[in-house]
Amino acid sequence: MSPIRLVIIGLLLYIGYKLVTGDWKKKTTDKAKKSVQDKQDDSTITDVLVEDPVCHKLVPRQQAVRLEHKTRKETIFFCSEACCKQFVSQEGDKE
User: Fold this and answer.
1) Contact call for residues 61 and 49 (beta carbons, < 8 A)
2) Counting Cβ atoms within 10 Å, is residue 85 exposed (0-12), middle (13-18) or buried (19+)?
């Protein structure tokens, strides 16, 4: 037998051994379980959707335009600068 055939046969026997013993499968399932656990750990809520009071669109809080309302003592979130300006002008008309 040629050395190449011996190498190929040895490689096939090694792969067969790993498949039969399940050692190869264990490592991949352990990695898969670990990645699922990592995703679950990272699944904490990082952003919340807030509703624009003008157009009623839902916007992620981190991307929203903020307005500190002095009379209400709260932060109001908007989807855009245009909605914020419209809200301010409507509030000015009410006062």
Assistant:
1) yes
2) middle
Q: CA triplet 79, 46, 34: central angle to 5 degrees? A: 145
Helices 23-41, 3-21: crossing angle, 10 deg rounding: 60
Beta bridge mates, 69: 74
What is the model's pTM? 0.49
Q: What tokens does 36 get?
A: 């699922």
Q: Which two tokens stand for residue 82?
A: 């245009």
**Residue 76: beta bridge partners?**
67
Residue range 29-44, pLDDT digits in tens: 666 666 666 655 555 6
Are 35 and 44 spatial neighbours (Cβ–Cβ below 8 Å)?
no
pLDDT band at 65 (very low <50, low <70, confident <90, very high): very high
